[in-house]
Amino acid sequence: MASSNSLMDSLFQRSLEDLIKGIRLQLHGESSFISKSLDEIRREIKSTDLSTKSIALQKLSYLAALHGVDMSWAAFHAVEVVSSSRFEDKRIGYHAIAQSFNDQTPVLLLITNQLRKDLNSSNEYEVSLALECLSRIGTDDLARDLTSEVFTLLGSSKAFVKKKAIGVVLRVFDKYPDAVKVCFKRLVENLESSDPHILSAVVGVFCELTTKDPRSYLPLAPEFYKILVDSRNNWVLIKVLKVFAKLASIEPRLAKKVADPICEHMRRNVGKSLLFECIRTVVSSLSDQETALKLAVARIRDFLVDDDPNLRYLGLHALSIVAPKHLWAVLENREAIVKALSDEDPNVKLEALHLLMAMVNEDNVSEISRILMNYALKSDLLFCNEVIASVLLACSRNSYEIIVDFDWYVSLLGEMARIPHCQRGQEIGHQLIDIGMRVKDARRELVRISRALLIDPALLGNQFLHPILSAAAWASGEYVEFSKTSYDIAEALLQPRTSLLPPSIRAIYIHSTFKVLVFSLKAYFSAQDSTSSPLVEESTNYVSSLVNAFTYESISSLVDMIELGLCSLSGTLDVEVQERAKNVLGFTGMIKHKIIEKVTSPESVIEASRAVAFMEDVFSEELGPVSSTAQEKVPLPDGLELNENLEDLQEICGEFLKPVVDSNSNSFSSSEKISFSVAKLRISDQLEASSSSSSHPPESASLLAEHRKRHGLYYLSSQKSDDHDDSNGNNNNTLNEYPPANEILADSFNPKKKMNQSKPRPVVVKLDEGDDIKMKPDGSSNHEPLSRAIQTALMGKGKEKEREKDNPERSLDSGTKEQSLRKDKKTKKKNGEKSSKHRSRRRSDKDASAAKPVDIVDFLL
Amino acid sequence: MTCLIMLASGIHFVLLVSRQGKVRLTKWYSPYAQKERSKVIRELSGVILNRGPKLCNFVEWRGYKVVYKRYASLYFCMCIDQEDNELEVLEIIHHYVEILDRYFGSVCELDLIFNFHKAYYILDELLIAGELQESSKKTVARIISAQDQLVEVAKEEASSISNIIAQATK
């Protein structure tokens, strides 16, 4: 029965062509046809007839390759098909294996013998199939078991086989480094092959090997050099150039040596691919060779103005490689780069943008930003945001290193918000706040820009800009003393369209309104005070107090407006908004009462002014920037059980705990850290003189101090406390005992740079420690077994007399090198070769522990 | 994707996609699971098919570069590392197309659809482990036709009815 089924399958089996035609006929529902075919394939593949099986497998490979069908289940059948004696079956089988096997395929062990058999086959095409398969699926075990076969094939007389064997070596070495001992010599010998295909294959292998671990292949430099000079084959030369790019970066003397032949190639009329490889080699590894670099940059210039977009792109790309070390090359091509910003091709535009950003320094930042903003206005959404992001990144790098004029920069940030496509609100908002905290001198402009942003009703509808508005609201509340008209700000903060904002940002709006109100009241009362007793306080601290002079009418209209704006919010669903609105309303209710009574009883004025002073204290702490690593510095307190089960608590607190938890998690949004402006940190010198804090020790501050005392453990320690005690010295309030949480330092001025600036750069507060630079794992460690094997192989070929075994790291003069040196004799000046070699050997013995091997010193002479 | 270790060097994969987004050939030199393969194809054909005719032939993609070129209705794409030479890969693509052209006699998309396995075998002669291994068009053509002959001989033997019956009844 089974056999007759199988007979039917064989006779009426769909061929691959039938399958393809069948799929093409399906206008709809390809997938149902495919799954039907898969059922057929599953049946056919179990057939005892190998050719039926192989056709089924071929169809399955087709479906897997083009329609994403899983074929891992057929792994065993593929192994069966490979064992067929017919070439076609074998080919189908190997193809399926190469396509679907991976290191985890369980039947992998079963093919070792089959591969060995085919590698030893007298039919070169079978050998080639097996080699191709091995190059794709070779595992540690396969590589180990088949090393000797690969070795034999490396010496094959048939170029067709030899070439593929060379290609496979790469995989074998990678999986089984010990194979180096066996095969490396034969591989190296092929570097002198006269057959260009063999040479291409072997150079390709060395190109990959060198990429992973350049140091091990330095001794082969003479062989590569010979190819570089003699070969006229583009493919080979490209690979050799890649090898030298790697070698020259670890052996500078080599760079000098190869610069000439590379220039020679660049001057010749070579193919563009080779020319580009020459350019790339020079800009990436030989950039210290002046003539070569100049020539390469000249060639890049040709690329930049070429009609072919590929060359324009690659030219820009090459410039971006050279930019960090030789900015002049970029500056020279500035026009072409700016022109490329309006290229059709987004890739070219992006590359040009990166280059422009590489050019940015403190002198040209405003000009480049101006150009870029114009492009951002005209560009599509994607590129526009790319431009904005690059400007933001370049300007903020290293605590705004390149920004001198912060007023300009803050207004630039404001401009960005108005670019229609702008979606980088998050970053812009972050920088607005960051600058507010770090750069005192920029605060006036910041408040001005913030006000402009807040009163623009168009911005409220764009959700990407909400973070900017949030930052603007915070800044105008926090630095309200710099504003000209606090009434305007309060009005902007309470405008009806703020209902478009998410609750977390609305909460910030309300809180800022609160700060504005407190400030205005403060100004009002101190004006009252100073009219009655001018000695009490100097109002010069409030720079704009003259403009902000409040009369009884204006202050009560402000209070009325705030009450009116907030009373509708006291019933909002969002608890954060509701609570803040109620806080403010409570305060206004109290104050308003006092202000009205003022006329009749002077005591209530004093009471009110005391209340205002109290609130003022709450807000007077200045916020500083917080280090990104601050959290890590907090030691874990003893007895803190974070993992303890909290279920007991839940049982006790039951239901009313839940909503509280919810509201907490809501408020822990981004707004959290900025909306609570009761600062834990006092940053030195400038605030003390202001307002009442020097006359009465502020209650809030002392509470804070109390808190610090009790929970000192949670606060950050500071090494800089002494400095700050000095600056606070005149001020004997309790805060002095508690040094600021953040270590800050003023940006050190670079005298050379400052010379020609009319306006000095304002102080930018920086945190002492940068972000921790994580130790990068040593890249070479991955390839350690292989590189050790290679180095041993190169050494083993030399005479053993040097006894370098103690120090396997250093591969020294090898036989290969000596041979090749002898061969190279005619091409090089060879005066005193012998003695110099001995000298070098002695030297290398001496600094065997030094990091740099001196093994190719003879070649470099 | 990010955790993938790229074992194969040089070219990571080869894709042939028609203008309508139909996949005509895929060859993976680096280990990608089946699911990833479909994802990669979808992602890349979305990017490449939407590019205009006058743009450059390179796309930056997931930290790699994809070099593509359109021949008639087919896009030939190869994925390489950042440091690899884009122009060289363009030449390899062109080379492959020329060999296909020589083999099929002015190749068209239909040739590749129905002889998809042959397109594979030719590619295998051109690249091994993602490295160019045969740069001579003539040699590739000769090797492929030699293998075709090998198959033909075997086929004649196998396809006789008596052989099939003998196989089935044994």
From TrEMBL, chain A:
The gene is LOC104746195. Part of the AP-3 complex, an adaptor-related complex which seems to be clathrin-associated. The complex is associated with the Golgi region as well as more peripheral structures. It facilitates the budding of vesicles from the Golgi membrane and may be directly involved in trafficking to the vacuole. It also function in maintaining the identity of lytic vacuoles and in regulating the transition between storage and lytic vacuoles. It is found in: Golgi apparatus. Residues 766-777, 797-822 have a biased composition (Basic and acidic residues). Keywords: Golgi apparatus, Protein transport, Transport. Residues 31-585 form the Clathrin/coatomer adaptor adaptin-like N-terminal domain. The keyword Transport applies. This is AP-3 complex subunit delta. Gene3D superfamilies: Leucine-rich Repeat Variant. The keyword Oxidoreductase does not apply. Belongs to the adaptor complexes large subunit family. Residues 718-861 are annotated as: Disordered. Adaptor protein complex 3 (AP-3) is a heterotetramer. It holds the Pfam family Adaptin_N. InterPro entries: AP3_complex_dsu, ARM-like, ARM-type_fold, Clathrin/coatomer_adapt-like_N.
TrEMBL record, chain B:
The keyword ATP-binding does not apply. It holds the Pfam family Clat_adaptor_s. PROSITE patterns: CLAT_ADAPTOR_S. Keywords: Cytoplasmic vesicle, Golgi apparatus, Membrane, Protein transport, Signal, Transport. Residues 1-16 form the signal peptide. The keyword Oxidoreductase does not apply. It is found in: Cytoplasmic vesicle membrane; Golgi apparatus. Residues 11-149 form the AP complex mu/sigma subunit domain. It comes from the Eukaryota. SUPFAM superfamilies: SNARE-like (SSF64356). Belongs to the adaptor complexes small subunit family. This is AP complex subunit sigma. It comes from Camelina sativa (False flax). The gene is LOC104721237.
